């Protein structure tokens, strides 16, 4: 009774008296008395309660000692054993919170697992034991960052909740703890469904309690923290407002002498600091510092922990950034130093702490411009990035700051390239195989942008002029200047978006500002990726081979993973067939679960959520098994680099003889081409001194706006210029006369020719006519038609089409692997499967597909080829897939739909359903050769994932096709028929020329790039050189070998 009263009131005398009474009871109880174990356990609980108040290690040592004695004296099968084991485990966990000793968690978890195993399902205490087990996993996760621990935590807490009847007094606490677990996982995964689950659970918990309930402050704190975490990712002001309100109420409801008050004040300070960052109100940062200073003053010296001091230091540095008061810097430095001292070696939070120390030095450098302070800043970022523990996302942010600041301030440092190497390693970890493909793309988009520049006042005020036509009020101008200083670490466009959020919040002029923010957002261009930054740094140091390795390591990560899962294992099998078989089995299972596993949402039932968490945990175990198998393979002599990114020397050993691969890197600092030619031992570095990232972005934006205004988004009956005539009316908005007769396309193609393609050709010095050339563009270049670069007006017209036959490849590795692993197509499946889908439900009619397929079928029959044509409702998605397995080549004349957010859900629209990439990837296409995608935008990527090749063409390559014909934007129904017909005529006629005596009627897929070049030239020469004519033939592209 005394101990329970102490928990409610915090009256220290109660717990002291409880211990005194219980010690006398233990002394008076003889050994062997069945009451002794229970009394020892009660005494241990009281020592635990006092320890939580005093922080005295002798108290928690006494608690553990008494609990261990209680367990030892309890006979096996005793009904009280689970409770006593539970008390022992909790004592270990509580001591860990004080000392940071991981061994205490290691002792607690198996004890709690034993407790759960001993407790029947119908035992009313089982939910509590499951909750405690979840807490232990949560604690270990916070120390080590092992995703398996947070997954086990969530599963245990969900099961605890499922076993708890509605209305039970523990329900609010169980909901709170489950929400906390989802928040922890969100902070590692950046998956918004996790933070939605967290906030939903916390709100339900709040609704279940009276305001005066003693647990209400804890639950309000949990809600406030979850909303704060969501705000950090989404920047939703309403979410931040909920956070601050909940945390303020939590503090108000907490007694002045309560041991949790300091932590609640710290959390409130964090959210107030976030509002300062949003609105720039000095009062918010003053209140944040005041709350956190009070928290530390209320905390006994031996109870201080690093997080409290770290958060105070961050708030002090924010205030210094606003006021310039040097005393804040001094206080922050002392707080950071103490926080580092209190953080045990190997603690999960160490990278975060070191990052904040680095941030402080960076703020100081911004004021002093003293390079010594920048050196300290970089040193701390490096220490954070190279920690052996901690969140990969935090270490990635530290690593990219280490690399980019080093490259900015000390560009000749020998540490620049190792820093970028470390950074790209974390990017790969971020998109791990334990996630679904969709989840990996979300993680890649969460990589924080870095630009060491400040939004210009002129640029921002120009945008605001539309909102204040009479003149921008002076207070708004002053506010913009304040916010400009605050957002100095954001890139120009992102900084403007943040500023519009702040202005909307402060001025109440929400409609206009929201409209302007939307306009800004629609024209936003993703910053260049980390791999591109790294490659530019390597080129600056005249290390093109390292630039190539950076680009191969840091781009197209998800498709690269899919290709790794499909890597032939013949060499490994000859050494260790059992290991090869195990790798093949795990590969198939990983590939399947990555594309099929559903994601949770708040409206699901709890049992459905538990089932999904079980699936998620199984997926995680598969990924861990995969990593262990890779370690085993790499331990075999000769397999040290098994499934690692290929070094430059390995890529150069396996190149096509028919022409070079040209990688084009575009970065803010410089642009370069890297050409790889068979027989050369080093890449050829070609600086593109007249080209820039700004030009690439401008060309991309100009084309995008032109295509949008013209509705070039889907294959239509009259989606392009009639041959020899005017554009016909279409059900979508036509290109207006001014834009159609303008110079957008001509300007883009001319600029690409003069500044990019011609300088590359001049350096290559081709000695043969029409060699192959594989373009491997990066970043903003991925959206530009390099294959059509040229001057198409005037007497000096020339273009790439006059000199070479162009193809594209997502990576150099994709072509190198094809060369290295070449094998002939099995003649039993050699042939062409065609399907036309002129009237798919929900899509516009494209009747020309019927004639297109018939024409190709007739050509195949004439040439004695094995061919199958099915139209409309004659074929289901399943049938289509089966025929794709039985025919080496496929021609799909239909509508297509790309899903950039989840590329495996990109699909081809059929009369009888749709065929998505996920399904295609799971099929057996080992003899796949050519895929002709006579649909629209099948090679159009996603701007925010410009280096991930999230389009159907790349997906078909990943599925196994060696070469793909695709389109960059919409194609007209009539031109599509003509291109396809010319393409196949060329293939069959030239195949027969090269295969004398071969009468199987098949075609040579290696000629497909030449066939497309020929077909496009045929179409081009029948048209004039107007903008609309260029838009008709330019979209056709060839991918692959």
TrEMBL record:
Which domain of life does this protein belong to?
A: Eukaryota
* Domain CHAT residues, every copy: 749-1040
Record-linked Gene3D superfamilies: Tetratricopeptide repeat domain
Query: What InterPro entries does the database record attribute to this sequence?
Result: CHAT_dom (IPR024983), TPR-like_helical_dom_sf (IPR011990)
- Fetch the PANTHER family from UniProt: FUNGAL LIPASE-LIKE DOMAIN-CONTAINING PROTEIN, KINESIN LIGHT CHAIN
Q: What is this protein called?
A: CHAT domain-containing protein
Please name the source species: Ephemerocybe angulata
